[in-house]
Design a protein that fits this description.
The chain is of the alpha/beta class. Helices cover about 45% and strands about 20% of the residues. It contains 8 helices and 10 strands. An 8-stranded mixed beta sheet has the order 2-1-3-8-5-9-7-6, with helices on both faces. The longest helix has about 40 residues. It is globular, with a radius of gyration of 24 Å. It starts with a strand and ends with a helix.
């Protein structure tokens, strides 16, 4: 079987790539890789051209967002109605393979800008369509992560406009929905799972940002100094109180 998709993967991270090849070829699917943007490798000039996060985002989060946005650009250059987006620490399940036709039927019916996460979200949800016994597509108010989802043309166009310069994390689904960029759905069962042995070691989001680390150290130093000043002020007030009581 086949479906239009991309798998974001750092080409030098061979173990993660091998994981995807094993997981996909098990179901006779050839993975279509998209070379990840590695945030820590971006120059200061590139960061200024590609993001305006005011120094709030980690380099890994910027690289992650640029990777997903890069897929949207490729997708929109085709005639495809939607694209499946995966990160390279996922495992396809038998349920995902079996329910593929129904997932595609659901996406084919969407006329509004839509994102469907292929895993479950926490929080408020409402059943909108049955895929199988005990498996439903849910309308969701919010959700996190971005390791496996389907996005249609309307949503991809909106997110590209919103993130022309990267401002927030890629998985800020609740914010996108509140701003009217997309309608958010998920499933009530993880049809695509994270490989726990790999998901904690990601070169896409790994942080080796010396600049940010320096900023954090400076902030901690400032907080420490402020605490010291407050302590000194309290001590002065206490001494003044004691002196006043002696005078009285």
């Amino acid at each position: 079987m086949g479906f239009y998709h991309y798998v974001i993967s750092d080409k030098v991270m061979s173990e993660r790539k091998k994981n995807i090849i094993r997981s996909f070829t098990q179901w006779e699917i050839t993975p279509n890789f998209f070379d990840a943007v590695i945030g820590k490798n971006l120059t200061q000039k590139q960061l200024k051209m590609l993001s305006c996060d005011y120094g709030l985002l980690k380099l890994g989060a910027i690289g992650c967002a640029l990777s997903h946005l890069g897929i949207y650009k490729k997708f929109l250059s085709t005639a495809e109605k939607y694209v499946y987006v995966f990160e390279d620490d996922v495992q396809l399940t038998e349920d995902f393979i079996r329910l593929q036709p129904k997932i595609q039927q659901f996406m084919n019916k969407r006329t509004e800008s839509t994102v469907l996460a292929l895993y479950k979200f926490d929080g408020l949800k409402k059943k909108v369509e049955k895929l199988d016994d005990g498996v439903y597509i849910m309308r969701s108010l919010a959700g996190t992560a971005s390791h496996a989802y389907v996005i249609n043309r309307g949503a991809a166009e909106n997110l590209l406009k919103a993130q022309t310069l990267v401002r927030i994390e890629m998985d800020a689904w609740a914010i996108y929905q509140k701003l009217g960029f997309l309608n958010l759905y998920c499933v009530n069962k993880d049809l695509v799972r994270l490989n726990e042995n790999l998901s904690c070691v990601s070169t896409i989001e790994i942080e080796s940002d010396g600049l940010n680390n320096t900023k954090i150290k400076n902030q901690k130093s400032k907080i420490k100094n402020q605490k010291s000043k407050i302590k000194n002020q309290k001590s002065k007030i206490k001494n003044q109180t004691v002196s006043f009581s002696i005078l009285v």
